[in-house]
Amino acid sequence: MPLQLLNAPADYRSPLLEPLQIHCEQGQIDLKLEWINGQFWLHSDEVKERPIGIEIDRELARHEEFFKKSSLQKELLAKAIGVKGPHRPKVLDLTAGLLGDSLLFLSFGCEVLAVERNPIVAFLIESALKNAQHPAIGRFHFRPGDALTALTELTAIEVIYYDPMFEDANEKTLPRKEMRIFRSLIGKDLDAKSIFQKALEKNSRRLVVKRPRHSDYLGDRPPLEFVGKSTRYDVYLSRQIP
Question: Which runs of consecutive H residues, i.e. helices, occur in the chain?
Fold first, then answer.
């Protein structure tokens, strides 16, 4: 059976369930999703591997505590998207994933629209959102589907954020085993350059591309770069901005 929902409520309904079933059947993916504490998690039969999911309330609370002690203005990601003084930009996150960066944007005080095309991840996001109660979720909007369609249909985008799964990541610094399993289900973004070019054409106030520190640029060298120990944020500015 390609898709199994373990311990799911008998009355659970979702418009994303059928696309997920089709995705698993067509891709011959044996997938187990387990209902734990009010939402679905990616299940593993390995005893030592934790389920993979999104704890929205917990993550937002963790970020809140962190920024009580640390200045937001020092955060590279905040600088990259243009957080300055009281200004909090509206961000289109083209690669929602497990919402790691989207939840950071929310903790900065931004309004966020996140896009995710993979049916497995989209289903986990939807489930986590139904279970979330943090007030910041009122500033979060989720759109299942692909980035190119979103870029075609959406207008007046202030900041576009793009974090593709790269082909040239340092294999010596692979994430923990659970995340490697998760990535094996998703695959790499082989159309990253096409999406980047489409995003660039939108001429938003900022296009921010997250890359490994020593990775190649997706396009020309950007006018702004914010470089951390392992991550680099390439910032392309609107042509209307001096």
Answer: 17-26, 56-69, 76-81, 100-108, 119-131, 147-153, 177-186, 192-201
pTM (predicted TM-score): 0.92
User: Domain for residue 11, yes or no?
Assistant: no
Are 80 and 160 within 8 A, CB to CB? no
pLDDT tens profile 193-206: 999 999 999 999 99
Q: Read off the tokens for 96.
A: 């929602």
Residue 242 has pLDDT above 60, yes or no: no
Are 114 and 146 in contact, with CB atoms under 8 Å apart?
A: no
Number of domains in the chain: 1
Domain that holds residue 120: 54-176+186-237
- Measured CA to CA, the distance from residue 198 to residue 201 in angstroms comes to 5
The CATH number of the domain holding residue 151 is 3.40.50.150
Give pLDDT tens digits for 97-127.
999 999 999 999 999 999 999 999 999 999 9
Question: Hunting for tokens 């698993």 — which residue is that?
Answer: 24
